[in-house]
Design brief:
single chain, alpha+beta, TIM Barrel, 17-stranded mixed β-sheet, two-stranded antiparallel sheet, 35% strand, globular
Length: 355
Amino acid sequence: MEPDKIYSELCGAIHIHTRFSDGSVDFAKLTAAAGAVGLDYVIVTDHMSLEGKKKHGEGYYGKVLVLIGYEHNDSNDKNHYLAIGTDTVIQEQQSPQKYIHLIQAAGGIGFLAHPAEKRQYFERYPSYPWTDWGVEGYDGMELWNQMSEWVENLKTWGSFIRILYPRRFLKCIPPTLLKRWDDLNRDRFISGIGGVDAHTFKFKFGCITYRIFPIKVELKGIRTHLYVPSAVHKGDMSEAKAACLAALKNGNAFISNYRQGDARGTKLFLHNGDGKVVPPGVATHTAVFPAAIAVSIPARAEIRLVKNGIQRGAKTGMRHSFEISEEGIYRIEVFKGNKAWIYSNPFPLGHYPFR
């Protein structure tokens, strides 16, 4: 059966801050901008706050589904964690392992936020990396953080051209984080998402105030595309929310950089030897060989096959099918020149651990 008859694609932006924490956009402007750029969903994650959920509520704003979680942190303002699907803010800033478990117990899912931040040269904007890598039970991690990459590259005065063109220089997921993700996925499935980390910052130059990232610009950067069952009715909020949370948790998704092109319409599916067609994600581990990972993208680019963290093949074009005959953790990367466009979540084919 063709994938289009089984799955629908939802394109959205995750990790957005509003006036309920340290962002400067309100819900009306956010939802209007999301609709204007054609997003299907946005996920708001204000710091230690679900005020947006209390005062505005989750649901459809026009054609845009708005889901509201929050961003937790420990007492040292490190180990930030995106909690989605919970109605409770844990007030005690306890150990990361504790709040991971408490958020899970409250019905939420969670992602390590901007885990690879390392900048040390802006006193006003310090890094907030994930440091407690011994934790268990988290669902995934934010692999590509739009704001983190932008700020980390403002190392010299000459770099301030990036203020005028904030999305142009987005390059790729940090290689060290990508390697850690690949290694972790060999023991258990870790879902990957992309985050905007939108704050709609304003910078002052004397008496002139300049908004670097207007919200519409922020929403034209890093996106997370979800594969949900085609039977999901887009007007049914509870059904759509459940489908989005399941896709995020299970990794039925891919990440894209809109600056390199609109990736909507991308198809990344495993054609199993038993005739089943499945998207990336934890459910793919019951492989029947021979199998194939079929890729179709909207524009010509280099399509790469990665197995257990090592590139195993590449093809330039708009579509290709990689034959798979052995167990492993597979994923797809798509590059335009030296800049990444698309990263799929893993296809774990076989049995854990993959060693």
